[in-house]
């Protein structure tokens, strides 16, 4: 009986090992690819999150601040600076956390004109191209990115490191995506700011027209607005709602334009007809602002600013939380201002008397939470 056991040949082992080595290499390669994809995915997700955060900014200042804060945090950078075209078309508008001196115009202009990213991986070796103030601030490397919105370059974003850093193609690509989102957020905030300014001057003209009819309420709308916004801030309402209260505060009595001067200026007792006319002013106000689409969010605040928490107000007799919060806030602000101001039919109350009245009416005429917030503001001295 011979030994039938056969052993693999030397050649076989060689083939086996080489195949294992190939396989290992391919596993390592796919692991590396998977890792990179995962990294890319993580970074892309982070970028997406950043863009949704920065797009919510309502002012240019806020947008620039967020763009800078987020990129510095995400990239582990030393600082970031934004240079924007100003109204005259010059790249002079610098936005940054510490108002740093302007970036070198050579670098800024190159990025701006070419519309392409520019990197300096080591400031020490970059020679005269880099101005002294960067070295003084401890900047060792930087990337300049064009900010493009609506097909044109509106500025440049610089991200700066306090260590030499070679920017990989992938990093440059990611920074560029971020810069595009940043440019959109900045442009959007700038347009929003412009539109808001135009809107506020329209509002101011309307308010002047309304107040010109009634000397006793001059400045009333401004004071009501200040109170209402302070309450909204105290209640930590979102920025859009505070902004809506600014506009609604100014415009709440705009409907009085449609009420006869005779009634508004009557020094003595008002007849039931007079009251009916006066009580139509929220509805009249809504009719005035309805044609302006940008003012539509104010409609519920203006329409219901004379509703009462217990349902005994006008025009609808809404109750409690049925009344929009903005309107409940405006009601307290309006009442306090009215009580502490002289009126044709009665002299002003003292501050103490007005506070007593608010306390007495909390839960009846007014939302108790709103009254509590207002009293806190008075106590803190934030309202006089
Ligand atoms: Fe009113």
Secondary structure blueprint with pairings:
Elements: H1 10-54, H2 60-75, E1 79-84, E2 93-95, H3 105-114, E3 118-120, H4 132-136, E4 141-149, E5 152-161, H5 169-212, H6 220-234, H7 239-251, H8 261-264, H9 272-279, H10 281-289, H11 299-303, H12 325-339, H13 351-361, H14 368-379
Antiparallel strand pairs: 1-2, 1-5, 3-4, 4-5
Fe (ii) ion is lined by residues 252-253, 281, 305-306, 334.
Descriptive notes:
The protein is built from 14 helices and 5 strands. The longest helix has 45 residues. It starts with 9 loop residues before the first helix and ends in a 5-residue tail after the last helix. With 384 residues, it is α+β, with helices and mostly antiparallel strands. Helix content is 55%, strand content 8%. The protein folds into 2 domains: 156 residues, Beta-Lactamase (2-Layer Sandwich), CATH 3.30.450; 167 residues, Orthogonal Bundle (Hypothetical protein af1432), CATH 1.10.3210.10. A hairpin with an 8-residue loop joins strand 1 and strand 2. Helix 1 runs parallel beside helix 5. It binds fe (ii) ion (FE2). The site of fe (ii) ion has 6 residues, from loops.
Concise summary:
With 384 residues, this protein is an alpha+beta fold. The chain is built from 14 helices and five strands. It starts with 9 loop residues before the first helix and ends in a 5-residue tail after the last helix.
């Amino acid at each position: 009986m011979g030994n039938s056991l056969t052993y693999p040949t030397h050649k076989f082992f060689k083939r086996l090992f080489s195949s294992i080595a190939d396989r290992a290499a391919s596993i390592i390669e796919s692991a590396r690819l998977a890792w990179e994809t995962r990294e890319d995915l993580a970074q892309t997700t982070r970028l997406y999150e950043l863009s949704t955060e920065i797009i919510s900014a309502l002012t240019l200042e806020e947008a620039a601040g967020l763009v800078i804060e987020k990129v510095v945090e995400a990239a582990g950078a030393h600082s970031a600076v934004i240079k924007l075209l100003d109204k005259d078309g010059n790249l002079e508008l610098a936005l940054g956390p510490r108002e740093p001196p302007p970036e070198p115009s050579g670098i800024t202009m190159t990025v701006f004109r070419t519309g392409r990213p520019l990197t300096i991986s080591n400031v020490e070796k970059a020679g005269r191209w880099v101005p002294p103030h960067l070295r003084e601030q401890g900047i060792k490397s930087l990337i300049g990115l064009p900010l493009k919105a609506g097909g044109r370059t509106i500025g440049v974003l610089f991200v700066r490191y306090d260590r030499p850093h070679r920017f990989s193609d992938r990093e440059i690509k990611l920074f560029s995506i971020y810069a595009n989102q940043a440019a959109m957020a900045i442009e959007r905030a700038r347009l929003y700011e412009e539109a808001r300014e135009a809107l506020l001057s329209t509002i101011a003209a309307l308010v002047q027209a309304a107040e010109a009819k009634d000397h006793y309420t001059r400045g009333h709308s401004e004071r009501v607005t200040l109170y209402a916004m302070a309450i909204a801030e105290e209640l930590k309402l979102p920025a859009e709602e505070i902004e809506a209260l600014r506009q609604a505060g100014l415009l709440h009595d705009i409907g009085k334009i449609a009420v006869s001067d005779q009634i508004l200026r009557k020094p003595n007792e008002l007849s039931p007809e007079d009251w009916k006319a006066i009580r139509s002013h929220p509805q009249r106000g809504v009719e005035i602002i309805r044609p302006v689409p940008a003012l539509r969010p104010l409609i519920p605040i203006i329409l219901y600013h004379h509703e009462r928490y217990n349902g005994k107000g006008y025009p609808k007799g809404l109750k409690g939380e049925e009344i929009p919060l903005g309107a409940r806030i405006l009601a307290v602000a309006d009442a306090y201002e009215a009580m502490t101001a002289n009126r044709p039919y009665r002299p002003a109350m003292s501050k103490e008397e007005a506070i007593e009245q608010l306390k007495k009416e909390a839960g009846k005429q007014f939302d108790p939470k709103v009254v509590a917030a207002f009293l806190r503001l008075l106590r803190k001295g934030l309202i006089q």
